[in-house]
Every structure is written in C-alpha cells, then in structure tokens.
Amino acid sequence: SFAYAAAQVKKMIEVTNRLGGENFVFWGGREGYQSLLNTDVRRELDHMATFLRMAVEYKEKIGFKGQLLLEPKPKGKFSFN
C-alpha cells in the first residue's frame, strides 16, 4: 500500500542520513504489467511523481544532503519499446 511504502522510504532516508550516506536509490523492483491496455499510465506516473516529491520534501526537512537517485529500468514498468 501507499502508506506502507511511504513509511519504509521515510525510515530508510532517516537511516541513510544518520549513516552519512551520499545518496538514496529508489529501486523499482521487478514487478510490472503484462499489458498496459487496462492501466491508466498517466495516473500511475502522477502518483509516482507525488511520491517522489514527498521524498524530496522529507529529505530537505531532516537535512539529508545526499542525492535521490532512480535506478534505471530499460525494460521496466513503463517501457514502451
């Protein structure tokens, strides 16, 4: 769920900050869609953008100076190749 994922990211950004980490990587995992025909891709991307904005706001709130990185997925969830 959204709340569970947000809580996990919040805690790990805190841990990364405490340990002096230089960056925090968002790893998309291996899950994806077998078909995008029944998926509102625009809505999914909007939700992801909202989530990432929340992470940026939180990192700034706690003073984490590291970069937030997205692991690239060439054949990932939203690949249209």
Q: Would you give an account of this structure?
A:
The structure is a single chain. The protein is mainly alpha-helical. The protein is built from two helices and two strands. The radius of gyration is 14 Å and the shape is elongated. The protein has helices at 2-18, 41-62, and strands at residues 23-26, 67-70. The termini are far apart.
* Outline: elongated
* Structure classification: mainly alpha
Specify Rg, calculated over alpha carbons.
14 Å
Low-confidence runs: none
**Spatial order of the strands forming the largest sheet:** 1-2
Largest sheet: 2 strands, parallel
Average pLDDT for all residues: 86
Distance between the termini: 28 Å
**Strand tally:** 2
Strand content: 5-15%
Helix and strand run: HEHE
Task: From the structure above, extract its key features.
81 residues; mainly alpha; two-stranded parallel ribbon; 2 strands; elongated
Secondary-structure topology with pairs:
Layout: H1 2-18, E1 23-26, H2 41-62, E2 67-70
Parallel strand pairs: 1-2
Helix pairs in contact: 1-2
